[in-house]
Amino acid sequence: MKIDPQIKRDLEIKLKEELAEKKKKATVISAYHLSQSDIDDLKKIFPELNKTKIDFEVDPNLIAGYVIKIGSKVVDLSIKGKLVNLKNNLYEIT
Amino acid sequence: MENLGIDGKLLLAQIINFVLFYLIIKKFVARPFLKTIEEEKQKDQEKEKLLAQIKKQEEEYLKKEEQLKEKAKREMDLIIKQAVKEAQTLKKEIIEEAKKDAETIRRESRKEMEKEKEQLYREVKQKVLDLALILVGQALKDALSEEEKKKISQKILNSLDKTVSLYEN
Q: How far is B150 from B146, CA to CA, in rounded Å?
């Protein structure tokens, strides 16, 4: 299907803008409410958090640890994520 | 002669009469009669000849008919034997074909069953692991206190490198 080149260009620009917007926002999900010291420790490990606005969410299902999202990048440091990995590995090896 | 009572003239006349009678009878009666008898005889002979010929022909025809019947019977027997042989061959082929088909169906069914068994095993495995995950997750959630969760989170952070580059999801 041929797409109009102008529409293609406009779409690219829009997507880049949205991506840039997303990059400015970060989300930190934890299993409990984070204290300032916890946030500072996180910022030391993840310097990108200093450059963006951070949304904090609490999800008890994570059990412990954190899930950090910046734009389309995700780091899963939660116990839940590790359990899921373990489950997938067990599935592969059995 | 007259003393004997024989009349010479009469005798002569009778003899001549007789001769004439004989000649006339011979010429006008006996000859045609004999001719007719001869002709009849010949006709009878010809009839008998014809009859014999016809009989002979009839015998020949009967013989030929017998021979043809015999030939036809032999050919029929041959055809029947051939048909029986072909039918037996066909029967064998059909049975072989059916056996092959049955074997193929059996093999395919076994393959299918193995596949389904594998699929079922994978599904059960997945469900068991999912259930285990849920149970362990729930158990940890219930068992760990806030402090313990914080300690674990801190340990996780400490186990990372000084700084971490984020990867694309």
A: 6
Q: Does residue B164 belong to any structural domain of this protein?
A: no
A79 to B146: CB separation less than 8 angstroms, yes or no: no
For chain A, which ranges sit under pLDDT 70? 22-23
Domain that holds residue B24: 8-140
Answer whether residue B166 is part of any domain: no
Query: How far does CA A60 lie from the centroid of its chain?
Result: 17
Give the closest-approach CA distance of A44 to chain B in angstroms.
7
- B164 neighbourhood in chain A, CB within 8 Å: 45-46, 75
Nearest CA in chain A to B140: A63
Kindly state whether residue B169 falls inside one of the protein's structural domains.
no
pLDDT digits (tens, 9 = 90+) for B32-48: 888 899 999 999 999 99
| Count of domains for chain B | 1
Contact by Cβ (8 Å): B144, A64: yes
Closest chain A residue by Cα to residue B122: A91
- Quick count: other Cβ atoms within 10 Å of Cβ A28? 22
pLDDT in tens, B130-159: 999 999 999 998 898 888 998 999 888 888
Q: Is residue B120 part of a domain?
A: yes
Report residue B64 as tokens.
Answer: 């030929």
Q: Strands, E, within chain A: which ranges?
A: 25-30, 53-58, 66-70, 73-76
pLDDT digits (tens, 9 = 90+) for A9-28: 999 999 888 877 766 788 99
